[in-house]
TrEMBL record, chain A:
<dbReference type="GO" id="GO:0006865">
    <property type="term" value="P:amino acid transport"/>
</dbReference>
<keyword id="KW-1003">Cell membrane</keyword>
<dbReference type="InterPro" id="IPR035906">
    <property type="entry name" value="MetI-like_sf"/>
</dbReference>
<dbReference type="GO" id="GO:0043190">
    <property type="term" value="C:ATP-binding cassette (ABC) transporter complex"/>
</dbReference>
<feature type="transmembrane region" description="Helical">
    <location>
        <begin position="148"/>
        <end position="168"/>
    </location>
</feature>
<keyword id="KW-0472">Membrane</keyword>
<feature type="transmembrane region" description="Helical">
    <location>
        <begin position="20"/>
        <end position="42"/>
    </location>
</feature>
From TrEMBL, chain B:
<dbReference type="GO" id="GO:0005524">
    <property type="term" value="F:ATP binding"/>
</dbReference>
<dbReference type="GO" id="GO:0015426">
    <property type="term" value="F:ATPase-coupled polar amino acid-transporter activity"/>
</dbReference>
<dbReference type="InterPro" id="IPR027417">
    <property type="entry name" value="P-loop_NTPase"/>
</dbReference>
<dbReference type="InterPro" id="IPR003593">
    <property type="entry name" value="AAA+_ATPase"/>
</dbReference>
<dbReference type="GO" id="GO:0016887">
    <property type="term" value="F:ATP hydrolysis activity"/>
</dbReference>
<dbReference type="GO" id="GO:0005886">
    <property type="term" value="C:plasma membrane"/>
</dbReference>
<keyword id="KW-0029">Amino-acid transport</keyword>
Automatic annotation (TrEMBL), chain C:
<keyword id="KW-1003">Cell membrane</keyword>
<keyword id="KW-1133">Transmembrane helix</keyword>
<dbReference type="InterPro" id="IPR010065">
    <property type="entry name" value="AA_ABC_transptr_permease_3TM"/>
</dbReference>
<keyword id="KW-0813">Transport</keyword>
<dbReference type="Pfam" id="PF00528">
    <property type="entry name" value="BPD_transp_1"/>
</dbReference>
<dbReference type="GO" id="GO:0022857">
    <property type="term" value="F:transmembrane transporter activity"/>
</dbReference>
<keyword id="KW-0472">Membrane</keyword>
């Protein structure tokens, strides 16, 4: 069988894997944005224990490798009577892992707003909520968008790690096909490369554009 | 309304520390309606802090500050309402960098005072014309020169119809050629009867526009007098020393 | 003329430490008044309660499934097992050191290539960087693992890990170098040209020494990430700490939980200490 025929035959398999990868990336990203926002609120809270809890969470997820978290989810949770499938485990772990990065991006965005801006809002008579809504958050949003884009790109690439705990994504399908047809590894390589680069490279350019736009607006 | 004879601002026995640094030492100061008080002194004397405690941008550690006879609220909506009546102009302008000049001037009136947007815009354009930058209304702050930004910041403060305006070193961050355009606006305001507290290094402005000059050093308010008295006959050694350094050229 | 009572004695000096108030860390909050401080107190109490509740829940759950049993933990924390896991960690380190060294060199070459004025050098460098940066690292480790047996011959899994880590990190590190070089004040470059240096000399003698010093913390941070990523060697049966933790669980199923947790904590401690050290170095350098 030549490369082209082989690729045509395995296209449905790749497509199925690709869809899982996209689904996993989007779902985890949504979860990470929500959880990351909650964590960011904890991290800048005036209550010391809340700050400490937020910091502990971020440090744990930043310093322990992603695959270790995935192993904790599929090997340790069942020992506590929690049974979840590989996809659910991967979704939860990726969302929680990425939330730490989202949290730090949001936090540094808020901290990047110059103190004088908040003071000027206060001096005008804006209440805390008004100052947040009209002065601080709109400015923080500009600095936060590019890093959040980079976080998404990293997440897309990280979804591939989920294949190691049995999530049937693009990488998993690639591995299966390669084991069945070792002679076609080069062809498969090109196909799987295309599958990921088609997501990460455009996203990378979008981030770079946003970065330039944010830089100009300042 | 309160009795017009009560001072608009009354600072009574105010102390403030930054950590172990005693930045305001038992400061007392009254500002009457329509009065222009210029605060001068060497850097680090606490004059900027004095300006910033009046609308509680900085909290104080002891003493009382009254605005229009009422003690300064500690927090919340009451404090926000008070601040709406006390305009402030900062050294670094602090225009909202994500909003146009016009939006900077209308934000307060619309969100704090609840004035209809169109009405606020009309008034904002009038004020921008008054400070001489009517043609800059639709630009972003970063597109303006420092002097223009500071004038926009003055318009932003005026848009709230404040009872008093606080100026915290309004010309210190400006290039020399832009200082006068800002001082001119301030002088006009002073002539129009606006109550002003101005912290500045501009002795010419103090001489020209002040009703009273206040001299601070090391967190203490050492002298206050009409400008001619202060500049020609300073009473304290610290003031004489200070004036000899700033007036030599 | 009104002179403010100059002679009046200053108020009694109060102990400076007395004035410690909960100053907000960000520009977000106004200074707190009494009500604000009360709210912070309530938030503090509530968050302590929530955290304590969570801790109790976890401990209860652990106890109910017998994971607090001393025997299980002492088994995993015995010297032999710790040595077994520790040697796994050394395998992570081995792969990381080799790949890190290669990526640092290759990355520099790529960065200089990308900044080169010659198109024939620049284009391949850009292509390499963009291609390998956009790739999931697992795949870059799987490729040699699948390709080598077919086209060459199977080698020690260590080398698959090293190849994957090197390819990916050469691209990432190249961008770190490039950002460092570009962030350098243009004046430095102009000054170098002004004293008569050529492009290559300016780069070698003026730009790089300064740029590298500035980017060392970033490079070290990337090397820590590389170390964590070395756990992906699990995909090609490389006997790293994580794989050893996992296999231990499979020959002693009663301690799977403990084995994985201990492995995770080991990684946590190594990562935390390393990133704190980088932080210290960064502060030290930004001061000096």
């Amino acid at each position: 069988m030549n490369g082209v025929d082989f690729l045509a035959d395995s296209l449905p398999v790749f497509w199925a894997g690709f869809r899982i990868t996209v689904l996993l990336a989007l779902a985890s990203y949504a979860g990470a944005l929500i959880l990351g926002a909650v964590l960011a609120v904890l991290r800048i809270s005036p209550a010391a224990p809340a700050r400490a809890a937020g910091l502990a969470y971020v440090e744990w997820f930043r310093n322990v490798p992603l695959l270790v978290h995935l192993f904790v989810a599929i090997l340790c949770l069942p020992k506590l009577g929690v049974r979840i499938g590989p996809f659910t485990a991967a979704f939860l772990v990726l969302a929680m892992y990425t939330a730490a990065q989202v949290c730090e991006a949001l936090r540094s965005g808020v901290n990047a707003v110059p103190r004088g801006q908040a003071e000027a809002g206060r001096a005008l008579g804006l209440t805390f909520g008004q100052n947040l809504r009209h002065v601080i958050l709109p400015q923080a949003a500009r600095t936060v968008v590019p890093p959040l884009g980079s976080v998404f790109i990293a997440l897309v690439k990280n979804t591939a790690v989920a294949s190691l705990i049995g999530v049937v994504d693009l990488t998993y399908q690639f591995g299966e096909l390669a084991r069945d047809e070792p002679g076609q590894v080069m062809t498969l390589l090109v196909a799987v490369a295309f599958g990921y680069l088609v997501m990460t490279i455009p996203a990378g350019y979008a981030v770079a554009r946003l970065q330039r736009r944010a830089a100009v607006a300042r | 309304m309160t009795d017009p004879s009560t001072p608009l601002i009354a600072v009574e026995h105010v102390d403030k520390w930054f950590g172990s640094l005693h930045v305001l030492r038992d400061v007392n100061l009254d500002v009457r309606r329509g009065e222009v008080v210029v605060v001068v002194g060497p850097s680090g004397s606490g004059k900027s802090t004095l300006c910033r405690v009046i609308n509680r941008i900085e909290p104080i550690d002891s003493g009382v500050i009254r605005v229009d006879g009422r003690p300064l609220p500690a927090e919340g909506r009451a404090l926000a309402r008070l601040r709406a009546d006390v305009g402030m102009v900062f050294q670094q302008f602090n225009l909202f960098s994500h909003r146009s000049i016009l939006d900077n001037v209308t934000l307060g009136p619309v969100k704090v005072r609840g004035i209809p947007r169109e009405q606020a815009r009309r008034r904002a354009r009038e004020l921008l014309a008054r400070v001489g930058i009517a043609d800059q209304a639709d630009k972003m702050p970063a597109q303006l020169s420092g002097g223009q930004q500071q004038r926009a910041a003055i318009a932003r403060a005026l848009a709230m119809d404040p009872k008093v305006l606080l100026f915290d070193e309004p010309t210190s961050a400006l290039d020399p050629e832009m200082i006068n355009e800002v001082l001119d606006v301030m002088t006009t305001l002073a002539g129009d009867g606006m109550t002003m507290v101005v912290v500045t290094h501009e002795m010419g402005f103090a001489r020209r526009a002040a009703d009273r000059v206040v001299f601070m050093a090391d967190g203490q308010l050492l002298e206050q007098a009409p400008p001619t008295d202060f500049f020609d006959h300073p009473r304290t050694d610290r003031a004489r020393d200070f004036l000899s350094k700033v007036l030599t050229h | 003329m009104t002179t403010v009572d100059e002679e009046r004695p200053a108020p009694p000096e109060l102990a400076p430490a007395r004035r410690v108030r909960p100053t907000p860390a960000t520009a977000l909050y106004d200074a707190f008044g009494p009500r604000g401080r009360r709210r912070v107190l309530v938030a503090t109490v509530v968050s302590v309660a929530v955290l304590a509740g969570f801790a109790v829940f976890v401990l209860y759950r652990l106890d109910r499934y017998g994971h607090l049993q001393r025997a299980r933990w002492s088994y995993v924390l015995s010297p032999e097992i710790l040595r077994y896991l520790g040697e796994g960690m050394l395998n992570n380190l081995k792969a990381s050191v080799i790949a890190g060294a290669l990526a640092l060199v290759l990355g520099l070459v790529l960065a200089l290539g990308r900044l080169s004025g010659t198109r024939a050098i620049r284009v391949p460098a850009v292509a390499w960087i963009e291609f390998f940066r956009g790739f999931p690292l697992v795949l870059l480790i799987l490729f040699p693992y699948l390709l080598f047996p077919v086209y060459l011959r199977a080698v020690d899994p260590l080398w698959y890990v090293v190849i994957g880590l090197t390819l990916y990190n050469s691209a990432v590190i190249a961008e770190v170098y490039r950002a460092g070089i570009l962030s350098l004040d243009r004046g430095q470059q102009e000054a170098a040209y002004a004293v008569g240096l050529r492009h290559g000399q300016a780069m070698r003698l003026v730009i790089l020494p300064q740029a590298i010093r500035r980017m060392v913390p970033l490079l070290l941070t990337q090397l820590i990430i590389l170390f964590k990523d070395s756990t992906l060697g699990v995909a090609v049966t490389y006997p790293d700490a994580l794989r050893r933790g996992e296999t231990m669980g499979s020959f002693e199923p009663r301690v799977v939980f403990q084995a994985i947790i201990v492995t995770a904590v080991m990684f946590f401690l190594v990562g935390l200490v390393a990133s704190r050290l980088v932080g210290v170095l960064e502060r030290h350098w930004s001061r000096g």
